[in-house]
Design goal:
The protein is of the alpha/beta class. Helices cover 38% and strands 19% of the residues. It is globular. The two termini are 30 Å apart. Bound molecules: glutamic acid. Glutamic acid binds next to α3 and β4.
Length: 372
């Protein structure tokens, strides 16, 4: 069974959905999707859109793609089309009283730990302000020529974003009903696979065989599903033209192909933090802070910090120990060791005055904290 309700949803709209198969953004389709996002938003859910369609929009605006000396065409098209795309979202959401925010990301932004934290903090702050982030890859700077710069397809981008914000559902809307047992365009016996509990070689091969048009075929959807389910999100691949598909999926209806989360959210974060990162230092906290962390599941604030050990940078993983030296948690520090030492014991509203800048009131945000 899919979860009854999902609270934080990443919805990816593919080019074929947004253009309804035509050569331009389809106003009706976009309006219907924005309407669904608005309903989810009104229900109090967090929705993040990952959108394609910039290149398609740019191509349409410039007419026939022209060869341009020295400027790769895709980048030009993306630069032109991204603003059209954003304008379309902004106008549609304004009609629902919702503000949208453009967020352009590249692989390099997320591979770097500090960039990852900055992107995460910004997205979470936007959600807190009830703004709908509209994410796309920054195709203008993320080019093949720069190694490691490019994610390349928005399916994988949407999975990275789902993990970044701890989404509990990732919806990949496309122009087919889901993952089939064979290519439905050529094989009449092809059946829709309703649920994939484990993404094994067989499933990967199937997705490879049934890859659709463009960069975002089934192969990248299965890759994305693997990434996001490992991070603890359920993933649904469904047809964008299905009425109210997004709203129904978020309410727990099973449409298309469901890939249930492979790991419990907290467990997977814990494993990742414990295994994937070495602890670079230690923050000693007082008993009040220990109680706030462990019992009330609160963030670690500067006021509760007693002592700092080791040399860690902003974005590094640290151990958090109580006054008796017992390790109570580990987490990712929003401030480097020298900064934490400088602001220890202070109220959060004094951070800026002391450091001359601030990265938020929390030394370790509760979302970046694993209790032991
Ligand atoms: N970032 C591309 C665009 O906006 C789309 C890439 C994809 O669909 O996978 O046109």
């Amino acid at each position: 069974m899919a979860k009854e309700r999902y609270q934080r949803v990443v919805a990816k709209f593919g080019t074929n959905v947004l253009t309804a198969g035509s050569d331009r953004l389809d106003a009706e389709v976009m309006s219907a999707l924005a309407g669904q996002v608005a309903r989810l938003h009104e229900e109090g859910r967090d929705v993040i859109i990952v959108t394609s369609g910039a290149i398609a929009a740019g191509r349409h605006r410039l007419g026939e793609p022209r060869e341009r000396k020295g400027v790769p065409l895709r980048q030009v098209l993306a630069a032109v089309g991204q603003s059209d795309l954003m304008q379309a979202y902004q106008e549609l959401f304004a009609g629902h009283g919702i503000t949208a925010a453009q967020t352009l990301l590249t692989r390099r932004d997320l591979a770097d730990r500090q960039g990852y934290l900055n992107a995460r903090n910004t997205l979470l702050a936007l959600l807190e302000l009830r703004v709908v982030p509209v994410v796309n890859e920054n195709d203008v700077v993320a080019v093949d020529e720069i190694e490691g710069a490019k994610i390349g397809d928005n399916d994988n981008l949407s999975a990275l974003v789902a993990n970044l914000v701890d989404a509990d559902l990732l919806v990949l809307l496309t122009d087919t009903a889901g993952l089939y047992s064979a290519d439905p365009r050529v094989d009449p016996t092809a059946e829709l696979i309703r649920r994939v509990d484990r993404i094994d070689e067989e499933i990967e091969e199937l997705a490879g065989d049934t890859a659709g048009r463009g960069v975002g075929g089934m192969a990248t959807k299965v890759q994305a599903a693997k990434l996001a389910t490992a991070g603890g999100a359920d993933v649904a691949v469904a047809e964008g033209s299905e009425p109210d598909v997004l709203v129904r999926l978020c309410r727990g209806e099973e449409i298309g192909t469901l890939f249930p989360a492979a790991a419990d959210r907290m467990e997977s974060r814990k494993r990742w933090m414990l295994a994937g990162l070495s602890l670079k230092g230690t923050i000693v906290i007082d008993s009040g802070a220990a109680r706030a962390l462990c019992q009330e599941k609160r963030s670690l604030l500067a006021a509760g910090v007693q002592e700092v050990q080791g040399a860690f940078d902003r974005g590094d993983a640290v151990a958090i120990v109580d006054g008796e030296g017992k390790r109570v948690a580990c987490g990712i520090s929003n401030y480097g060791a020298a900064d934490v030492a400088a602001i220890r014991g202070l109220r959060s509203n004094r951070i800026e005055e002391v450091l001359g800048y601030q990265y938020g009131g929390e030394v370790v945000h509760r979302d970046n904290l694993v209790l032991l």
